[in-house]
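Lecture 7 notes: from sequence to structure.

We start with a single chain of 349 residues. Read the sequence below before looking at the structure.
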Amino acid sequence: MKDIKFNWGLVGHGNIQKYLQTAIVNLHPSHAYVFYGPGKVGKTFLAKNIAQTVLCDEYRKMGSLDSAVKVNPAELPCGRCDACRQFAKGMHPDLYTVEREVSEKTGKKKSVIAVGQIRDLLEKISQRAFLNSYKVVIIPEAQALSQEASNCLLKTLEEPAPRTIIFLITTNKNLLLPTILSRSQLFKFLPVPSDAVYEYLVAEGAGRDEARELARISRGRPTIAKHFLKDKVRFEEYKNNVQGVLKVLVNRPLERLKEIEKMFAEDKGGDVALKNLDFLAGLVRDALLCKLGKTELLANYFLTTELADLGARAPSGWFCGFLRRVENARAMIQGNVNPRLVMENLFLE
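Now the structure, written as tokens:
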């Protein structure tokens, strides 16, 4: 079989891509994958590209037993067939995405994926594919599966439906049931090297200075760099939010509590807390780099003076310990501990 060009456009993760492409070319994709690692590094993006690939009409023909139909495609996904066009419009009938539902009462996303959602999903994928292709399920926040939902999904992983692929995307695989992990192929995603993000941004039309700036500030997360490149307002909002979190960090304890109260004034859910924990981790990392004299590695370069002042306030060990506490706080919030309480305890330690 001749080489196939994969039109995935993923930045980084070359070894993971090669492994999965080999499985696809050999017509042996796994029934379940767990993609885990930091947010915004390309996990969901890759899952969607694999989904489009196996749903593409060219891939279906590639696996046909009928020699009159069988083809060896030059590229996957082709982007031209009916299946690819439906996929691009978000209308492919054999692609299922399961996310937290929005509460009618609050208008915010619920904290968990309910068992009813998984039951509905399993009923759908137990049927024959609409387009005689694979059926693909993507769960972008698998750590949000409730205990009952996880147990319900486990039954399908133990007895997988034919020609069905399930992608479980998470920032922390330890929040998934061990039995789910043991029945899936696991892939750990790491932050993408800054040079790779920089080269991608330049190829997308960014100026070299702009690309260098966004590559640094994204901290190895291409999805964030892409968003900031396309949306300058969003980039300025990011800067304002980071400055707000820095204000909480350097204030006196009582003032910190007041700032946290403002933080949760409009949204008391875990999403705002997780976002601010990400900002906080970046600031503490940068303060430690300033302390070590590595200012050329700063992500939030626009706060160099403030970060240098912060770095001078405590020994290096304190910053390392605080970063560990930030990760513990993240795990607690993802485990549905009250986010405001977690944040207050973190900032008062």
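The first helix runs from residue 14 to 25. Keep this in mind for problem set 3.
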